[in-house]
Design goal:
alpha/beta; 10 helices; 44% helix; disordered N terminus; binds S-adenosyl-L-homocysteine
Length: 256
């Protein structure tokens, strides 16, 4: 989630990762929304190369794998997620064209103009939307696609409580109009932008809520774990209260 970056130095990374690895997705999203975004992309075939950046355990990668014939590389900083990712692809007999690798989105292992498409759900905030769009562009072929989800303000003005929370957690949060302008400036034709439905967030938070109880039991008395869960709960409470004002949006662009 968008606030993870801000809080990460305060908490034990290993505990955070364990908490998130128990779920199929580590950010709000769904198969339907992944497929909706994919419907804007044309021309992918068995010769195409896709990168899924910040893939986590690969919930959305498996949807891409089942809906294309392309070669897909999932990349994530967290080796536990990548282990889980590679176990999942083995189970689904997708091993020959889907692989998960450990890597950093700030220094990707791809060649110039190697990729037909870059995908990134709930992860580009780790490098920042603007920087990610600009730096990743070189790996795309001309005419290649980028599809990312990003935290977005839905209205011009917001109550100060939610404005202040996100400005601290993710200062790059901005309106659709500004995000689309950034995409255009970075050298893409903006093809589509649409909101990720509330149900993706409420499902995500309710799944998380379930694992919080057992997590707290396991780490009873551990201050890091308790503070981390308290922060997660606070973020979720704010979402339920202020979801009219912000949420994830999918942005799909084509490299000019
Ligand atoms: N795309 C997945 C996971 C989103 S959570 C989903 O939607 O379910 C964000 C992911 O970004 C986490 O898996 C985290 O480990 C990864 N991440 C954070 N910083 C990163 C970096 N610098 N390089 C690559 N991955 C990173």
């Amino acid at each position: 989630m968008g606030s993870k970056k801000q809080s990460i130095h305060e908490f034990d990374l290993k505990i955070i990762r364990e908490y998130f690895s128990g779920t199929e997705r580590q950010a709000p999203g769904s198969s339907d929304i992944t497929l909706k975004a994919l419907s804007f992309i044309e021309g992918l075939d068995e010769n195409s190369k896709i990168a899924d950046i910040g893939c986590g355990t690969g919930g959305q990668t498996m949807v891409l794998a089942q809906s294309t014939k392309s070669e897909i590389t999932g990349i994530d900083l967290c080796s536990d997620y990548i282990d889980q990712f590679n176990r999942n692809t083995q189970n689904k007999l997708l091993k020959h064209r889907i692989k998960g690798i450990v890597g950093d989105m700030q220094n990707l292992p791809f060649r110039k103009e190697e990729l037909d498409m870059i995908w990134s759900e709930g992860a580009i905030y780790n490098i920042g939307f603007k920087r990610g769009l600009n730096e990743w562009r070189k790996y795309l072929k001309p005419g290649g696609y980028i599809a990312v989800t990003e935290n977005t303000w839905f209205t011009e003005n917001r109550p100060s409580a939610i404005q202040e929370f996100w400005e601290k957690a993710y200062p790059e949060i901005d309106t659709f109009a500004n995000k689309l302008a950034q995409m255009q400036t970075a050298g893409y034709i903006p093809l589509a932008a649409f909101t990720v439905p509330e149900t993706c967030w409420t499902n995500y938070y309710s799944l998380m809520q379930k694992s919080q109880e057992s997590f707290l039991k396991k780490y009873k008395g551990n201050k890091t774990a308790e503070e981390f869960i308290a922060y997660q709960r606070y973020e979720a409470d704010l979402y339920y209260q202020y979801k009219a004002y912000y949420g994830y949006a999918f942005y799909i662009g084509k490299k000019i």
